[in-house]
Protein: Solute carrier family 12 member 6
Amino acid sequence: RETPTPQVITFGREGDPHTSGEHFLEGGREGERPLPRGTHTRLPFHGVDDDDFYDRNLALFEEEMDTRPKVSSLLNRLANYTNLTQGAREHEEAESIGEKRKAYKSPQMGTFMGVYLPCLQNIFGVILFLRLTWVVGTAGVLQALCIVFICCCCTLLTAISMSAIATNGVVPAGGSYFMISRSLGPEFGGAVGLCFYLGTTFAGAMYILGAIEILLMYIAPWAAIFVSSSPDGEGAAMLNNMRVYGSIFLLLMALLVFVGVKYVNKLASVFLACVIISILSIYTGALVSAFISTNQIILLGNGTVPSTFDPSLPSSEATTALWLQFCEGPDLNASCDYYFNLSNISEIPGIPGLSSGVITENIWSVYLSKGDVLEKGSLPSPRPVHPPTNRLPYVFADITTSFTLLVGIFFPSVTGIMAGSNRSGDLKDAQRSIPIGTIMAILTTSLVYLSSVVLFGACIEGVVLRDKFGDSVKGNLVVGTLSWPSPWVIVIGSFFSTCGAGLQSLTGAPRLLQAIAKDNIIPFLRVFGHGKANGEPTWALLLTALIAELGILIASLDLVAPILSMFFLMCYLFVNLACALQTLLRTPNWRPRFSYYHWTLSFLGMIICLALMFISSWYYAIVAIVIAGMIYKYIEYHGAEKEWGDGIRGLSLSAARYALLRLEEGPPHTKNWRPQLLVLLKLDEDAYVKSPRLLTFASQLKAGKGLTIVGTVITGNYLHSYGEALAAEQTLKHQMDKEKVKGFCQCIVANKAREGISHMIQSSGLGGMRHNTVVMGWPLAWRQSEDPQSWKTFINTVRVTTAAHLALLVPKNISLFPGNSEPCGEGYIDVWWIVHDGGMLMLLPFLLRQHKVWRKCAMRIFTVAQMEDNSIQMKKDLATFLYHLRIEADVEVVEMHNSDISAYTYERTLMMEQRSQMLRQMRLSKSDREKEAQLVKDRNSMLRLTSIGSDDDEDTDGVHMTWTKEKALQYRATHSGCSTPEGFRDMLSIRPDHSNVRRMHTAVKLNEVIVNKSHDARLVLLNMPGPPRNPAGDENYMEFLEVLTEGLERVLLVRGGGSEVITIYS
Structure:
């Protein structure tokens, strides 16, 4: 045989008729479909642009380039991760069709500015300055520590769950609502979103009430509009003042938010500085108090008296203002109150200081009823005949206190942990910043709260701590009396910080409502999705202001705080539930980058949230649960009537039917995609499974979750083979039990194996419980087999799965795959990502590594760069893509140069074509001999002609030919070239087909690269090229696959179903 000339080897030279644009059809044959256009080599083809031809190195994949793009072009598209092919649908829909896309500006905020400081600002709020001292005085240091610790544990556990959810994909703007609704579905998402919205709105009302309390009590008491003439009406007058001023403040704040959020964000840093300075002044004051005792308070016996009175004792000449309050006249002999007569007046320091040991008195709780006098327990006191009324100038408790009430009032001071995740759209690296920033902020604030409880208990006199409004210390803010250098530092600082927190709430809540309204899950809220031209939520702001006004009309900080505690606790409860469920269900998309979470922690967080709800206020808890339940049911039932069957007997069937109908409602979202397997097994003559390792592999891939259907086909007639089918089903069940595969088995009887497999692929499953992935074995020894049935069935199955848009997995050398009791040592699972067909290649190693057998294997991803690709940029893009997918893997880009086609490739193609032609001739001669025998038997009979290269038993398309002696001789002369030496000589002189040479070149080149890099890998995953469109080349296709996987021990050929199965979004 002559050595082929170089012109033939390096196809595409000028003047070669086979490669000109007009003739370059698939397989070099005219009349067939031309190849789709795509990304191409740089060879100078004559008369045609370079861009009209595919890469020679990817010729095997060229027929499907329109649906399965090259990896380099995919990565190019994903470079800034704003326009993912699928999975980003929600965000793409948000931009209306006509709207022009704004230039993408990458967010720059880091952990400190973007998460830590906003969380600090939101967590530190009004309660720290206005109520923490009172909580410590009433509950005592121990119980106060207990309250703070439980509340901080609740938020810490929630933050851990939230970090897991937030790092499970890109969290776009929308924060907590987005995370929960996309994790738990629209019903939970809507219910929790609205709870969180109501909580944030009431928080705005609480901050405004706090600001007004500071203004009217400590900054400008003269500004009160309503003033009561009698002591009885003071409380009511104060509440009315709060309502009026609160409404005015709310209006001003809403206008500021309406005018522009940018002003609110600019002021945020100023307000945060106020908070930090105030807290530092408390610590400084506590240290200073160790050396100086300040703020004298007056006690009458052991009861506290407002410090507006002159404490000097009555002399013989004159009586004091205090005397006038307790006695009937200014004279020394006037009759006085019984208690006043028996008690001494004494002065003690209100801030004894750190070194005084006052903490021993403050360590235990002192719960009071409404109207009780604040008493210092260590001083003696005569028992009054009747309890003092509020006409006497004592300092009274304004509400009845209990441990549960204090929990409800304190809890809002630990909320605000979602501030970081709500800003996720502005963070440079949200997956890293949110967990670190949020958890650090919670630890910082918890430390401040716990240390403040101890410092307050150790520095301030108990009666002063229990004095909510500071009457005993000249009407000053109690925390202010401790601060250094002046009480005004805290008063001004806390006023601005509460105003700032109120503004933040009024900014955040409307956006949250707008996000819920835009999702269109609650129809009556649809109107609130609209806003100003720049997207500001005008209508949502209006509703928020109205709901906040309801909170302001309540007018009491102590009554509003438990309401928003409820809503926040509901929200945190669902965040924990979402994390626990995702972890227990092991959905393939659950791959948080934050790994320090566990379902037990989430459950503990859930229990604490539920306990705190009922501890702080059981009736509010029930109301909050009912509201959430009603929203849930409203969303669930909206527009769809559910029918639950009748009676308890039908409940199980009804539940199953209900679940299947729910599954049927639409195709699964990308992030819920998991492989639902149909495993095709072959039984031998004795009805034993030929490749039980296929089941082992399926069980490792599923890790006990999802749907598995195991199927086999028996050739024959169903009427006669019914018993055989039952026996085969029992065999499959037994094998499934042995391999611990949970699923269903199916046995189909058909005349031909390929028909049976096609029917099984079409009809297996029920409703939404259908397979989306087919697993089948590689036809062993297909080359040696004289019967082409096995590989023809194989290729037919590949075509059927492609037509059905199902994924296909073909493990080659399945007998070498590890069993369930043979864990792989440390090694690599190598992924060769050549074309993108939905991300199956990324997902499968992740799922396999959930199983103990593959757990120790690390993952490597290789992709192929052509000459024109920027391989350095490709590597960076691929690493970023994997980071966003939360998949840990080493990345390598392998460069394939456009080398000329080697003589080896040419020889290999030649051998392949000669072999297939020889087999065809042998099959023809065999069929001819049979036909001749038939001819002798009955010369005039009608016979069906078997078409060239098809199965012996396969019907042709009903073509009937009449055989005569002349026709038979003529047929033999033309078709049985193989039986003569000349025929073989003709066959040896054939020149290989150009498209086959190019495909063989791809297979050889890729195989060289793969064997070079992955020869020691535990498993190699590889894109499986599709079969040729022209069935005449089927045998060559098998050869290409064989060459592609030569020299590799364990190979998994993967073909995606055409839909995305992996997403960077949570």
Remarks:
- Residues 823-941+993-1065 form one domain.
- The mean pLDDT is 77.
- The longest strand covers residues 857-865.
